[in-house]
Amino acid sequence: MSAPETPPPPAPRVSIEDLTKYYGQTLVLDEVYLDVHEHEVVCLIGASGSGKSTLLRCINQLVPYDYGTIRLDGVPVDDPSFGKTGLRKRIGIVFQAYNLFPHMNVLQNVTLAPRKVHGVGRAEAEDNARRLLGLLEMANFADKYPEQLSGGQQQRVAIVRALATDPDVLLLDEVTAALDPELIGGVLDVIRDLKDQGMTMAIVTHEMGFAKDVADRVCFLEDGRIIEEGLPEQLLVDPQEPQTRRFLQRIIDAGRL
Amino acid sequence: MSAERAAPVDRARRAGPRPPVKATLTPRERYLPASISIVSTVVVFGVLWRVVTSAENWPLIERQFFNVEAMRASFPEVLRGFALNMRIWVVALVLIAIFGVIIAIFRSLTGPWAAPLRVFAIVYIDLLRGMPSILLVLLFGLGIPALNLPGVTSSNTFWGSVALVLGYSAYTSEVYRSGIEAVPDGQRAAAKALGLTQWQTLRYSILPQAVRNVIPALLNLAVALQKDVALLSVIGVREAVRNAQIFTARTFNFSSYMVATVLFLLATIPMARFTDWVTKRDQERRLQRTL
Fold it and tell me: Which member of A10, A108, B168, B230 lies 3.0 to 4.6 Å from A104 by CB, making a disulfide possible if both were Cys?
């Protein structure tokens, strides 16, 4: 394991220490340590069931964990000072299955949290939503309902919905895994743009080419542990650990790298 | 025709696949099946009608149940009673829809502080759903007025309707709950992740979808309630069945019951057809979503 080339800023935005989680008797996260720094993009890779999605969901407390500490800017995420929903205001998440609200149109989906959670006025929330939709080339779809959109369009709306609360950190959970192949590129471009704008992100992905391209750091997980961590060009090209090599070999054999 | 289909197609000029050729039906092919259906149906029912009406006791049955004179005589009272049925039905529907949601929300709340509400909902549903409706109607409709409580109405119509509302709310809340549970987990996760509180998640994400899920089931309950309002006849509420009964008691003729029957059918059959239509539309909507 080698450190990133540029020395990281002293305090990480998200710091995970000794995170351990069981589903019943099954160990899904095994003493995970991970830091995500300001403006950094960390990609989590690994086979299905390796714990990467669970790790992501632990960060914004969507699933409980058994041991360990997760801090946002030094404050534990279960600290009462966050209140019931304070943490979610600062960490956005985008899901594999989009999870848009089917009974609301695009604009309502995007403005729900700003209006009801953050107390932003309707006009202001809608202006901001339209601006963000415009940035992702979705401006013309503001009045459409999710079922009228393609998967790629729905996922872009889901990204806009997560961005509308102006989060400090964005978590992306296999956001292209449910998409038709021809729609993946457009969504990945959106994420690249977010990186260029300095968004701090933790990304679970099966797209190795994309990880190589966008990640500042890549972590390989197996059986709930981070086996190897490093710069993408190093970890994805010349992995040190045998497990990482085996995983990447399978990806290469499948023609996916 | 087959020669034409087999002819080589100029793929560059072809705009798309050739539409299938519709066979022209001969009049015989077109009208014969329908004619057979109509004629056979008419014959079967005609024979049935003949058999029934030629029975030895038919004149007696006709006199007792289908006496036009008696029907005409009882009609105004039965109709007036039926108007009360419909009024009770509409008011009860609104109250049940609201009360059922409240019970369902109580039942689906999580967290230790919501425990009393949860327990209340469970006990309420178990008790009210487990009791025969008629028992509820008797208890409330006769029991409470008999207490002569000061400042409380002793109208048996009021208390009988309360019994129906309470009983049906228990069923309705279970229907709502099944709708709540049918909303995918991802919806809850998404709402939670956006920072919505438990109540906001229910209000903005879960309930609107849950209600949409269960509209056909709710309509079925509405049809059942339309008929169950007649249970109030046992506590003396002068609704359609009670008024028909009064007529029968006076004249020993059951034709007034047939008047009530027709009135109920006029209300319930369109309602049931409407429910079928909504259910079908709902299924098509779901099918489309999965495609």
Answer: A108
Nearest-Cα distance to chain B for A155, in Å, is: 13
Q: Is residue A77 part of a domain?
A: yes
Is residue A1, in this structure, part of any structural domain at all?
no
Domain containing A145 — which CATH number? 3.40.50.300
Return the top range by mean pLDDT from A71-80, B97-106, B274-283: B97-106
Please tell me which of the candidates B187, B195, B204 has its beta carbon nearest to residue A165: B195
Question: Measured between CB atoms, does A115 come within 8 Å of chain B?
Answer: no
Total domains in the fold of chain B? 1
What pLDDT, in 10s, does the model give residues A79-131?
Answer: 888 876 778 888 999 999 999 999 999 999 999 999 999 899 999 999 999 99
Any domain includes A234: yes
- Per-residue pLDDT, B289: 62
Beta bridge partners of A32: A19
Domain count, chain A: 1
Pick from A212, A214, A243, A215: which is nearest to A227 by CA? A243
Dihedral angle sign, alpha carbons of residues A104, A110, A115, A116: positive
pTM: 0.79
- Cα angle vertex A95, ends B214, B110, to 5°? 50
